[in-house]
Specification:
Layout (H helix, E strand, L loop, with lengths): L1 E7 L16 E2 L2 E2 H12 L5 E5 L4 H10 L7 E5 L4 H11 L6 E6 L7 H10 L5 E7 L4 E4 L5 E5 L5 E3 L3 E4 H14 L7 H6 L4 E5 L12 H11 L7
Parallel strand pairs: 1-4, 1-6, 4-5, 7-12
Antiparallel strand pairs: 2-3, 6-11, 7-10, 7-11, 8-9
Helix pairs in contact: 1-2, 3-5
The site of the ligand C[C@](O)(CO)[C@H](O)COP(=O)(O)O has 9 residues, from loops.
EC number: 2.7.7.60
Family: Belongs to the IspD/TarI cytidylyltransferase family. IspD subfamily.
Organism: Peptococcus simiae
Length: 233
Amino acid sequence: MLGIVVLAAGRGKRMGAEGNKLFLPLGGQSVLSLTLCHIRAGAPACPLMVVYRPGEKAIVQAAINEAGLAPDRVLLIEGGAERQDSVRLALAALPADWDRVLIHDGARPILRADLMARLVRGLDQAAAVIPVLPVTDTVKMVDAAGYVLKTVDRASLYRVQTPQAFQVAPLRAYHQQALQAGLTVTDDAALMEAYGEGVLTVAGDPYNIKVTVPADLPLAALYLKESGLCESD
Ligand SMILES: Nc1ccn([C@@H]2O[C@H](COP(=O)(O)OP(=O)(O)OP(=O)(O)O)[C@@H](O)[C@H]2O)c(=O)n1
Ligand SMILES: C[C@](O)(CO)[C@H](O)COP(=O)(O)O
């Protein structure tokens, strides 16, 4: 069975808000409830697990309700200190019949059904499938003093998004191995790469912004309108 893990246990430090950025207003709801709304709309049959920050279970449950999801359809688990910890804890708690999983940042609310469909189809070819977009700016390496070291050839560089799609068994094993080895990563596909698994890329969605810094919120509101996702999902 395919399940979806939604990560919501961060602190939102770069946003600089009072609390967790996932509860900031967006599109008449909150960032998290919009994310959940769009998952419900795009993958109505998929069971969900939401990873929440200690002390935020009640507000996450409110976002689940606001998204029109039946509370009994959503598993809740406490996250860890880092994103990688939250994913490892989620994988360890998945129902036994979840053999494939989409792991998604709750901070990416503009999630369209066609992207999820592309990722799931890719699991017929690989144990890991990730959405990517080409880099459109020039990229340079810069030293600690702020001077350019070199310009990087951007032809083979891509920006990576979530959801990321996986066969559960290998990813769960690699997360445990990474914990033992002290290997830290910023996305889950990096663990599959580190342990020799092929990672397939599919076209990402330019509207699938991660709400990270203050400037991302008005952009997300614009993308919400442009994406065709109904605000009243
Ligand atoms: N310990 C953590 C850290 C992050 N996340 C989630 O992972 C996603 C991507 O992380 P990021 O955008 O970095 O969120 P934060 O860690 O909250 O942001 P910051 O690094 O600015 O504190 C977010 O939906 C966040 O809630 C999580 O579930 N558990
Ligand atoms: C997983 C991710 O969204 C892929 O781009 C990104 O690595 C998350 O980084 P963050 O610093 O945890 O937001």
